[in-house]
Amino acid sequence: MKMINFCKLLVLLAAFFATPGFAESSKVLIVNSDNTVYRYETIATEFKKVLQQNAYQWTEFNLDRHANAEEELKRLIQQENPELIYSIGTKAYSLARIHAHNKKMLFSAVINWRRLDIDAGTYGVANELSSAQEISLLRYFFPTIKKIGLLYNDKFSREYVETIKKDALALGINIVTQSVNDAQEIGEALDQLLPKIDMFWIISDPIVLSGKDSVRQIFQAAEQQKKPVYAYSDVFIEHGAVLAISADIATIGRQSANLAMMMDKDKVPGGTVQVPAGSTITLNKCVLDALQLKFNQDALDSVNKIVGCAKND
Predict the structure, then answer these.
(1) Signal peptide span per the entry (predicted)?
(2) Whole-model pTM?
(3) How many CB atoms lie within 10 A of CB 299?
(4) Potential cystine with 153: which of 9, 167, 206, 207 (Cβ 3.0-4.6 Å)?
(5) Residue extent(s) of CATH 3.40.50.2300 domains in the chain
């Protein structure tokens, strides 16, 4: 009788530990382009927190800490044989993809993901909100603006720009574009574009944003012609953007982790790349007042952070 009861206990324990959350979870390899970058480090931290809460195992590889990163990454993938590879940043994704060999792939913090080679079984969280969301918010904040201009490179951003145009047209806003082949053409392109528009929109195009000089050139030209600048990241607020609607960094990390767990269970919802679930809206009141822009005062309740003019000592 005691033996029967003991056997029943073993069966119950086996069933208990086989339930979700107690089985040995899949191993995840986190490949970070540069963990010294605050954005990347924050995403990685939040991602790991969620994995830890759900008893997932992971190994982390930071490209910035290895002189021969590609070879060492290749060796690590062979040794660890992870179920899923999570890449933070474009460089991490590009290197990991070469050696993935039918692994499940996940990415975030990638500038203009539309230009990536994305195979079946690869998912991601976009770097920006959808263009429809951004345009709707822009119209809400600045109801009188009718023409918005942007620079882009046709190779990297053509599909994204076409989507922006379509979404804007549905809301009665005209998108005026100017394509550039390289950073040397930005100055002339701005001279042609700025007089035609009410606001300039900075998108995450790698040619337009090829370096600090390009960013400086955009804001100097916009200031000279008294045109407000809208940007996809609050990093540009300090340069003079009047408004920035950026994806919340910490939320991207948590969202990526939840997507990773769904991928592990083969329960990924429709859509290869998800729109960020959270956003942060920053308003530059100093620039707003300087340009005397007509602003919807009711929209202030939606703003997360208001930046004023710097005080001179």
Answers:
(1) 1-23
(2) 0.79
(3) 16
(4) 207
(5) 2-127+250-274, 131-247+279-307
